[in-house]
Amino acid sequence: MQWETVIGLEVHVQLATQTKIFSGASTVFGAEPNTQACAIDLAMPGTLPSPNAKAFEYAILFGLAIDAEIGERSVFERKNYFYPDLPKGYQTTQLDEPIVGAGIVDIALEDGTVKPIRIHHAHLEEDAGKSLHEDFIGMSGIDLNRAGTPLIEIVSEPDMRTKEEAVAFARKLHSIVTAIGIGDGDMSQGSMRFDVNISVRPKDQAEYGTRTETKNLNSFKFMERCIEQEVQRQIEVIEDGGTIRQETRLYNGDTHTARAMRSKEEANDYRYFPCPDLLPVHFTPEAIEALRATLPELPDARKTRFEENFGLSPYDATIIALDANTAAFFEVCAKQCDDAKLTANWLMGEMASQLNSNDLTIKDSPITAEQLAGLITRIKDGTISSKIAKKVFEAMWQGEGDADTVIEKQGLKQVSDTGALEKIVDDIIAANPAQVANFVNAEPEKRKKMLGFFVGQSMKASKGQANPQALNQILMTKLNQAANS
Amino acid sequence: MHNLTIAELVKGLQNKTFSSQELTQQTLDRIHAVDPTFNSFISVSDERALQQAKAADALLAKGDAPTLCGVPIAQKDIFCTNGTLTTCGSKMLHNFVPPYDATVVDNYNAAGAVMVGKTNMDEFAMGSSNETSFFGSVKNPWDTNCVPGGSSGGSAAAVAAQLVAGATATDTGGSIRQPAALCGITGLKPTYGRVSRWGMIAFASSLDQAGTMTRTAEDAAIMLQTMASYDSKDSTCVDHPIDDYRASLNNSIEGLTIGLPKEYFGEGLDPGTQARVEEAIKQFESMGAKVKEISLPHSSLSVPAYYVIAPAECSANLSRFDGVRYGHRCENPADLEDLYKRSRGEGFGDEVKRRILVGAYALSAGYYDAYYNKAQKVRRLIKQDFVDAFKDVDVIMGPTSPTPAFEFGSKSDDPIAMYLEDIYTIATNLAGLPGMSIPCGLVGDKPVGLQLIGNYFNEAKLLNVAHQFQQATHFHTLAPQFLKGDK
User: Fold this and answer.
1) Within-domain flag for B287
2) Count of domains for chain B
3) pLDDT along chain B (487 residues), means of 10
4) Which residues of B are identified as catalytic?
5) A-chain residues within 8 Å CB-CB of B121?
6) Which residue out of A22, A34, A48 would a mutagenesis test of the B interface target, given it has the greatest number of B Cβ atoms within 10 Å?
7) Cβ A184 vs Cβ A178: under 8 Å
8) Secondary structure (3-state) at B94
9) Is A445 helix (H, G, I), strand (E, B) or coil?
10) Contact yes or no for A50 and B233 at CB 8 A
11) Are the beta carbons of A50 and B235 separated by less than 8 Å?
12) Does A51 touch chain B if contact means CB atoms closer than 8 Å?
């Protein structure tokens, strides 16, 4: 049977506010446990939440970025459950009146088409702390530094049909969040986390299948693997005559497996009700418009600009414009070396593959935009070939200095000097009489193909530093001379 | 000196008739001597009080002292006091010492008041008789076989026994006004949002409001002037101008329109109580006030609505008491669930557990609309009743509680009978209005309270009306038998 996958995402984004959503404690990541938790975060008796206006503004900015309706009135609710890292015994969140209503996020598919993904809503809430089970024998530790960190939870409609679409959507959200500066997007620190709702159905069936929700995915790679596995699991269960249980599953990033946490029947009754400590929040249309005016350029607009101003292809522009940091890197580099196409190629080629294999983002690149521009400039002015440039890039990545330093130190400067190249070519011709004879006896139109051998030999003799154009020129001249003599 | 009012103590201190240290020492001595009978204090802070008194005397000597400088007061043990035990009347917090002051405590500290101790209360302010306190019930100074009312029974008894001239209290459904009535003193619950709730341990957040226990309306005005403040630490605190409450005390009440809700004089009201209240109304008429019968048609729904909303809020508010970070923790928990179940099972008393269960039930899936949502709709109707009534009247009056003080144990096994104690006070909390109870005479040898309900943020009017009554009557000067001859 032909199966169709249906995917919806719930995305938690930590907002990059200085302080927590309801207290003045710092939100900086990585501090000693419980050093960034004040009386409010500890839920000491008598403490009350003081809303952080910045968190509201950030949530509204996100809403404006996806053209969503902004609730003029938004209400916080208490979601009740007991857990040691939830100090109040309830999470302050939103349910019926969220701050951001329905919106649309367009994703670019590999075939070049654009697909709109509907956002059901996005709401503000506080993060919980962390339970630490490893470091204590027979006990658990609680770190409340993260408790009260502001989050928006973005809830999509079940509009995605493949894991690629889901990843494209997740990446697009990541790009919007970082573009408008409301989150740092650092997934290794949990700044963005995904819950994936997955179901399958026969290709021509209208109703959705029973879905499962897998929680705790904090990388695009995990998400892709998780969807792949879960879709496979569901199809196998159904094809073996079973049924899918509506359940919550937890993904383990170490083992790359997910396990069922609880079924629908065991689900908590969270007993939501409006938080009586927090009044409904109102934003006037004027306040919302004032925030709109502060919105920076968004990825879609940036993509169009890169096409128009830098002459990038739609594909290149989409990829480079997606991430704010990559886009900024591109602009600096392309302007300095005055070659957008080469910059794009390097960013999507060598740079992307180095970042990927080292699991880094462009912010962590040891090579700056200025340094990459320096390297590209040396390609353009003929100092080095593209091939040597890769070697130089490698050295720059290892921290051996900028392009000129590496070229100088390793003596990689391209040999364009005609005398030196002629000497190399003469030696190669002299050393390979048989190949020269073959060349001479061949039909003129076939000679071009046979030139490769001599180019390779000469290039090797020059340790790769021969200027390819100059070398070709000299070889052709000399071999033709031999043929005609 | 114990029979002096706050206004008189302020005068005596500023005129150097006595020092704060003398006054405070006497107050402490008297508490240690007398309070074992009444149990109105959970803790007494001799050392802290004498330090504050010393500092107050230094300020008084300089002649630039703040309003309550050197005056001993008591804080209800629901207000967090930095470095001083704060129990909320519960075993759950029998060992809890907060690292911060409630805003109310802050305000009194800034005004130079001396805190002599923390008063007893129903556990987590849940109760109308003070019988639910983990620290034992408070005895009514008028009759030690009777309850002082609750939940602020400790504050009411301490003021009635003249251990302190003023005490703080809180009122969620009548917890200031009912004990004030049963102990024969003046209790004031301000408008919701007038006083900061920061540092006041929450029972039902949308109803809780701090207020004062004093013997006179003038003292209530002095106490409220310090207590009221806008506080950004409490989002529900309202940034509304604060009147000069003493300035209008002597305004004439000629032409005042008093509304008498017919629903407050029906079945269940003790005839003696009704007689005292009606005499008080006649007194107002003789002072030039007009009386108008009004209707608050949804009155009968206030107790049921309250006993959905307040438990619902408390079920979440009390979730933080889980044995993890502070307060009572069971011995040797086997696992997390055991830790929760035993810490909470051991830490909370029956009434608290009952309300948590009721509240969790009212909020649970399938019942939310029938209970919580319906109660909220009723709450809006009750509020509208008052809004409509205040179009025609300046003040609403009626009994504070249906009966005078009752005996220990007489209602403690019947939660509904206990809940009906607050039948006349609860609607005010649901509407968020200010209310007072002032003494209006005795039934037998027990005091009766007259309830005054004012319009939003019109505490000045309530205090003015109450003060004028007290200028014309002597009921507020009546004292329990044990004080006779004790000068």
Assistant:
1) no
2) 1
3) 96 97 98 98 98 97 94 98 98 98 98 98 97 98 97 98 98 98 98 98 98 98 98 97 98 98 93 98 98 97 97 98 97 95 98 97 95 97 98 98 96 87 96 98 97 98 98 97 75
4) 76, 151, 175
5) none
6) A48
7) yes
8) coil
9) helix
10) yes
11) yes
12) yes
